[in-house]
User: What shape does this take?
Amino acid sequence: MNSIDQAAYNSPWYLLHPAVKLGLTLAILVVVLALDSRTISCLVILAIFALLVGKARVSWRLYLGLMAIPLVFLTVGCVSVAITNSTLSTGIWPGVYAGGMWWGVSPQSLQEAINLLLRSLACVSAMYLLALTTPVVQLVYVLRLFKLPGVAVDLMGLIYMNIFIFLQTAQDIYVAQQSRCGYRGFAGHLTSLTALLSNLFIKNLQRSNACYDALLARGFKGSLQVLDEQYIVRPLHLALSGMFIASLILIHSYGGWICTLI
Amino acid sequence: MHSDLIAAENLAYNYQDGTRALDGVTLSLPHNAKAAILGPNGAGKSTLFLHFNGLLRPHSGLVYYKGKALQYHTKALQVLRREVGIVFQNPDNQLFSSSVFQDISFGLMNQGCNPAEARRRVEEVGSKLGIEPLFSKPTHFLSVGQKKMVALAGVLVMEPELIICDEPTAGLDPGNAERFMRVLDELHRQGKAMVISTHDVNLAYQWADVVWLLNKGKVLAQGSPVEVFSQREVLKAARLETPWLLETWQEMAALGLASPNLPPRSKSQFRQTLIKP
Assistant: This one.
C-alpha cells in the first residue's frame, strides 16, 4: 500500500486532472468488459505496462510485483473455471471418472478460463493505471466534483489518512508487547492480541478527540473546507485517451487479422 | 491587565473525573511579547492553551483578549480562533488531510477566504517557511520536523496575532528544534505575540520576555526570565533547575569574576560581563 501511494505521489502525472485519469480508467474497464476479447485484453495489458513503465516512470520491478499479487488469486480462480465435467469421456483431458462423471479440462473450458484470466488482468492493469498515478486525495476531490455528499467524502479522506497512523500505532504496540515477552503460547497470543485491540480502540478514541480539538482551533464549521491543488487538463491528453479507446474498438471490429496472431 | 493582548483572571477548570486542572490562574501577556510557560507534566499548560482560543470554557474566572472578556457564541469564537492560533504538540493530531497543500489551506477556507487569495497566501507562507517542496507530498510520509512546519504553516496562513506553540521542540532533533525556534523568532520580529510551553529552562531563559511557572494548576511565579529563574525555592517546587547561563554568571559574579549588574541573557552577553583578571 505504501509503495502504491509513494508511486502515485512521485508520478510525473501527479498534477494531471484526476477526473481525466479516472475517466480513462473507467473507459478502459468498460471496453475490456464489454468487448470480451482476448486480443483487446492482451493489448490493454501490454499498453498499460508500456505506458506506466515507459511514460509514468513506474519501475518495472514494482509493477510486475504488483501484478503478481492478483495473478495468483486469478490463476487459482481460473483453474476452477477450466475444470469441467461431462457424462462422456471424449474431449475431456485427463478424464478422471468420479461420482458418475468425467472430470477434466475441455478445449472450451480452457478457452473460457484463459479469456477470463486475461480480461481480469486487463481490468487490474486499468486499476493500477489509476492507482499508480493518482493519490487518494485526488480521487476524493473528483468525488466532491461529482457532488457526492460532503460528509461521506470528508470521511473517506479522514479514514484514508488515518489508516497510516492506525497501522503505525498498531505496529508500535505490537513491538512493545513483543519486547516484553508478549505472544507466548496460544493463551499468550490471545491475551496480547486482546490487549492490542482494546488499546488501539482507546488510543484512537483519544486521538480523534485531539484531532477534533485541533480542527476547532482552526475554525472548523462542520465540513472540511480545503483548497485543492490546481490540476492540469491538456487537450492532447484527452485526444490521446480518446484515440486509445477508439482504436481498441476499431481493432475489435475490423482487425480480425490481429486476432489470428494471438 | 486590560491593556494586555491576552489575560487570564482567576481561571479554574476541572476535568470530568474531578481533577483540578487549573486552580485560580491569573496571568497576562503584553502585546508583541514572547512568553514561555514551564511546569511539570500535568501542571495545566495545555489546558490553559485550550482556554486561550475558547476551545475550553472556564468553570470560573475569565479570559480577556484585547481587554474584552471572551464570548462563547460561534461567531465570536470564529473571530477569536483566527487571531489566536494554536500549534499542537503532536502534529499527527493536527494534520487531518493527506495533502500538505489542502491541510494548510483549511483554516483560510473556514474563514471564507476566496480561493485565489487563499492560494496566494498558502504559497506565500510555504515559501516563507521553506516548505514549498512538500506541497506535493502526502502528510503521512513527512518527518516529524516537516510535519511540525506544516502544522505551523496551517496556523500562520490565518495571520493570527498570537501564536501558541505547545512544546514546539518536543520530538525534534537539535538542528530542527533550532530551525523551528528561529522561525518563531522571525515571526516575533514581524510583530506576532507568542506563547510556547517547554521543559527546557535554558530555552525559556534565553528566548522569552515573560516566563510563567505553573504547577498543579496554580501559577507559582511570573515575570521576566531573570526574576522567575532567580527564585530558587520556587524552581525547586516545580522541580526545575536554574538555567546554566544564569547559574554560572551568578557564581562567577559572587567570586568577582563577572560584572554583577546585568544578568546576561545570551552567550555573547555573558562574555561581555566577564572581568578579565
